[in-house]
Amino acid sequence: MFSHLVESAMHSTPQGFVGVGLIFVYFVIMMCAIVYRIKKGDHMQH
Questions:
Q1: For residue 24, how far is the Cα from the chain centroid?
Q2: Distance between CA atoms of 18 and 10, rounded to whole angstroms?
Q3: pLDDT tens, 3-46?
Q4: What's the predicted TM-score (pTM) here?
Q5: List of residues 6+ apart from 10 with CB closer than 8 A
Q6: Under a CB-based contact definition with an 8 Å cutoff, are residues 24 and 5 in contact?
Q7: How far is CA 4 from CA 8, 16, 24, in A?
Q8: Could you give the CA distance from residue 33 to residue 35 in angstroms, rounded to a whole number?
Q9: Rounded CA gap, 12 and 16, in Å?
C-alpha cells in the first residue's frame, strides 16, 4: 500500500504530491496519538 502511494505521488502534479504528503503526515500523527492514548490508558475510562 505504501509503495503504491509513493509511486502514484511521483507521477502526479505538484498539488497531488503535496496532498499525498499531507495525508501521510496526518496518518503518522493519528497513529502516534493512538499509541499515546493506549499507553496512557485513556481508552479504559468510559
A1: 4
A2: 11
A3: 886 777 777 788 877 887 898 899 999 999 999 988 888 666 65
A4: 0.61
A5: 17
A6: yes
A7: 6, 14, 13
A8: 6
A9: 6
Burial of 9 (0-12, 13-18, 19+ CB in 10 A): middle
C-alpha cell recorded at residue 17: 504530491
Q: What angle do CA 11, 21, 37 make, to 5 degrees?
A: 145
Beta strands (DSSP E) in 1-46 are: none
Q: Find all residues with CB under 8 Å of 17, minimum gap 6, and list them.
A: 9, 10
Q: Are 12 and 20 in contact (CB under 8 A)?
A: yes
